[in-house]
Amino acid sequence: MKIKSTVATLSLLSMLSFGAFAATSIDAQQAQGRQSLGTVSVSSVTSSPMDMREMLDQKAQEKGASAYRVIEAHTGDEWHATAELYK
């Protein structure tokens, strides 16, 4: 029984530490010297720029990036953005 509770506790802690990781939005100067991992895009964001950034952050995390830089963003009825990812 003690082994099960230990495994459950470790699993929970690993999920919490993974959830605490967040990619950081950086500017062009901060991006200098970093290794690019490619780009990601989000579109059809209808609510706000903050929601767009949250979506970019989520995609950056999924790709294993520690930072991202928005290289294109525009709005009309919906938001669209492209970001370059960095290690």
Question: What's the helix and strand layout?
Answer:
Elements (H helix, E strand, L loop, with lengths): L1 H19 L3 E2 L2 H4 L4 E10 L3 H14 L4 E9 L3 E8 L1
Parallel strand pairs: 1-3
Antiparallel strand pairs: 2-4, 3-4
| Overall radius of gyration | 17 Å
Name of the CATH superfamily: Flavin-binding protein dodecin
Q: State the helix count.
A: 3
The residue-averaged pLDDT reads 78
Largest sheet: 4 strands, mixed
Q: Tell me the series of helices and strands, N- to C-terminal.
A: HEHEHEE
Strand proportion: 25-35%
**Tally of strands:** 4
CATH arch. level architecture? 2-Layer Sandwich
Overall, the morphology is globular
Q: How does the helix and strand content classify structurally?
A: alpha+beta
How many distinct folded domains? 1
